Amino acid sequence: MSLIGRFKGRIGKILYSFGNLGQALMYHIIGTFLIYFYVDVVRLDPAWVGTGFLFSYGVWNSVNDPIAGYISDRTRTRWGRRIPFILFFTPLMMLLFVLLWSPPVGGKPLTTPNSIEIFLYFVFIVVAFELIYTFVTVGWNALFPEMFQSLEERSEVSVYRQVAAMIGLIIGFVAGPLIISYFTDVFGVFNGWMLTGILIAFISGCAFLVSLLGSREKKEFSARGTLPIREAFRVTLFNRSFLTASSCILMTSWVWSLLSAVSPFVVVYMLGGSIADVTIISAPIFFVGILFYPLWRKVCIRFGTKRTLIVSTSLSVLFLVLFIIFADNITKGLLLMCLYGFANSGITLTRELLMPDVIDEDEVKTGFRREGVYLGVTTFVDRFALALTGGSTALIFSLSGFTPGVSQPPSVVFTMRLLIMMIFLIALLGFLVSAYFYPLGPERVSEIREKLRELRAREK
Q1: What class, spelled out in words, does domain 9-459 have in CATH?
Q2: pTM
Q3: Region 302-318 average pLDDT
Q4: Which sign does the torsion angle of CA 367, 371, 372, 377 carry?
């Protein structure tokens, strides 16, 4: 326990940021491959898989994420409010992740796609995993706005967090298909997927535990307590800044989640590649993104979080639409993904700076630091992107006439392209409307920070 928070300064910031490797790796492995695994490998009915996602990441999230955040705000231990959930829940999260990729099908695809037993297994394990994953990630994310206060410091740590996330994504998107191909070739299809789950769980769990070396909590924030539960959720859910910021987060997550879910299908059925080629298409998103983080950080400090996020999100969807319309081979797809990687770098850097500003504004209004509730409800909103993706993929498969495991006729491919493009544009429209009404521009943020400095001075 003495190792928790042992490192400070830049090293401490980097070590804390390692948690994002685990968070991103698990989230995007699920977003990219879980639907594909249960549809194309397990052969469970695609509509059932989409419906399972809709329930698990929609209905269930509406309960567990906000409650987990509120419980975190109220927790009092000698290690703090957030750290115990990271420390003690991570091993269980790892076990449940492995079970996601170990359905009891006897090592072979279903002979009938309407297996109620496998459907219930799928839903139950996703629900259990999501509960524990929420406690871990809400606790870890709540430390960010608490430990780091200024835009300069937050944007610096955001760079470290996003580099860690990119490493997780590289493992998931770039190395993941190669790992899956190797394990399935050597150990068989279902054993290969299970071993992949074990490896990803180990890497992700270690990343969260390493993050504790740079994690610490401020005792004065814990000592303040928090609002009663009804008042806490009333204030949160009627906060205009929160509602618009969380909507912006939802729309960008929907784009990411849908891109992850359809990328194996796009590569195999539209670009004429294999699952391993997902590596080639995904690589520019990460490597190009890392290169442009310093540029986007300068833009963010100069023009503010809101404006930077609007520009980067608009550009990213534009490049995705061009990708879906024009890419018909791996080479074209690779070039267009380079452009997307540049724009997406701005989103990943600035998007997570929205909620710390909302939390700072809330502290000015209520006198409490309520990262848990805000990030818990934000996690609910963010995970609902997977529910939207479940509904979106079910719509895409149903309306296009997609048939798993066989070559698709041109009419099916064209319809899939059209539907995917339309969903991306709908998500962008939702984002732009939300950003327009988001009230925390640069001037308002500066005013809030001045009031917080006065509040801190009075507390000393």
Answers
A1: mainly alpha
A2: 0.75
A3: 95
A4: positive
